[in-house]
Structure of DUF7305 domain-containing protein:
Amino acid sequence: IRPCLFALRTASDIAARCAADAGLTKALFEMNEKLGVFPWADSNLPQVTDEALPGCDATFSYTVTGDANSGYTVVSIGKSAHAQKQVSSTLRLKGLFEYGLLAKQIVVVEENTLLYGYDSDTGSTDTELTIGTISTAPDSVVLGGGSSIIDGDVFVGAGGDTETVIQNSGTVINGQTYALKKEIPFPVITPPSLPDMGTMDITGTTVIGPADNGKYAGIVLLSTGMLEITGGDVVLHVTGDIVMNGGSQIQVDAGSSLTLYVDGDLAGDVLNNVEINNYTGIAGGFKLCLMGTSEPYIEFVNNSDLFMAIYAPNTDVIFKNNTNFRGSIVAESIYMKNNSLFYYDKALQGESIGSGNIGVSFVIDRWQEG
């Protein structure tokens, strides 16, 4: 009899644990479904009491607590006969800017280039970063020697061999190298619906604010032109090209932000000899989304000092020598020349661009039993 009772208790324990895990999985699913409902409300977070686990006599109950500022916690309890198991987890948002550098094809980090992480929300510099590519082709990640340091992990595409995909000539990697378990998607971004505003030709200083949010057929900045963003959050959708001549400027004032969607090309001198001043001091203050497929690359001038988040999955992003960049980059390929400094801003981790929270989902951050 005792062996039978022990077997029954063991079976009940296993069923209860399976039910608790099922409750956690369903809570995570419901939170992600809730992301598609606007506006977000913390007043009706998912909860379930004694829901049956299909195929057995076990049940699960779960509650989600927390808010957008402090984060969310799931507690799930599974029951089967006299057995009860509890699991809990904290959730965080995973977004388009989950990684420091993310490329479809090639990542090149040349000599004497430093890559670190920080968190502009907390001021912490005790933050590692992750960079990589979804490619599995040989030499898709090229790391120069000198004194280059990557303070974090480097990944390659699913099924790839890190020994062949990563060509390392002496860069110190303070984390791990690994192959992804599954491919990372590069979602197509849908800009928010905005009013048609015609074109914008900038010769001197043009100051715009939230009242100027809109869809523009094109923007031209002459060599004397400066586009100043002030007064709050500015969103511009350029359906044609942006022509930026050498010596022109884009300036984002403190307390404001610019989200810039571009369907066409960045023409003229591109970002070479164009000054970008993000006086917010945070990468989230200037988000650039290149949505077209015709722009082969954008290039930043030597000695650039930039706070930006760039989503350009069909465009190469090139940084010339001595660049300081704080933010995150998603691109076709990414090239960082000699003597550059890159800081990934962890505060971008759960952020998206466009409408509908595209590319954003809740994921399990920390998990524990009991």
